[in-house]
Amino acid sequence: MMELNSGSYYIPKSNSKTPQGEDAHFISDNTIGVADGVGGWASQGIDSGEYSRQLMSNSLISIMEQVHFNADPMLVLRDAFINTNGQGSSTACILTLTNDKVRAVNVGDSGFIVLRRGCSVYPSPTQLHGFNYPYQLGCGIYSDRPSSADILEFKEVMSGDVIVMGTDGLFDNLYTSEIEKIIVDAEEEATSRGGKIDPNKVAQTLAEFALKKSLDPDNPTPFAEAQKENYILGKGTGGKVDDITGIVSYVS
């Protein structure tokens, strides 16, 4: 039976009004999830981080109530959405590994990639209504519902594969090639010293590198390229300051 060995790291952006940030995540055996509260609610005095944290907490409750913890990602998402009563809105991505198959649901621009021997073999698609306007679950009349989620499946997962999940703060600032290099470097370092890989440390390396790039106005990033492609005023470089969540899971 395939298992996930997962670790995570979270860097909230500096904001005295929302010191916990707006991201949330969970790890429960072979099921992982991330959520990113939509910051636009702040103009109405609403902290979307409360919504995302409730969503992830209710996801964990749903998992524990399922038989043998054999989580159905869509059922988890629906349960969590129904039981989340906070104000605001949030993206959400929930993934589970069952035998040799990854099943996931995704609403918005959080997501994951599956890497094999250091190369991406499956990147999850994002859901956008428009540039920097992701699909989002929430209490608003214009918010999306779980029925809008992408239902994703990646078969034939192999031992040694690595799953990197994150919010847009990670993927807007790091290219896939940069993520691949960090994963490969971590594996090579572990091999050279004859030790085991700590997924928490790898997640920390990813998040801290994303933070560094987010603060650099001259560094090329996926977000800056997307701005240029959408004719948004900008020079095509620079990061996006945001909350950053990374989860790294090793399949064994």
TrEMBL record:
Region (Disordered): 1-22
Metal-binding in keyword set: yes
Keyword Acetylation applies: no
Similarity field: Belongs to the PP2C family.
Catalytic activity: O-phospho-L-threonyl-[protein] + H2O = L-threonyl-[protein] + phosphate; O-phospho-L-seryl-[protein] + H2O = L-seryl-[protein] + phosphate
GO MF annotation list: metal ion binding; protein serine/threonine phosphatase activity
Domain spans labelled PPM-type phosphatase: 8-251
Cofactor(s) needed by this chain: Mn(2+); Mg(2+)
Protein name as catalogued: Protein phosphatase
Polar residues bias: start-end ranges: 1-19
Source organism (scientific name): Papaver atlanticum
Keywords on record: Hydrolase, Magnesium, Manganese, Metal-binding, Protein phosphatase
EC number(s) on file: 3.1.3.16
Record-linked PROSITE patterns: PPM_2
Entry superkingdom: Eukaryota
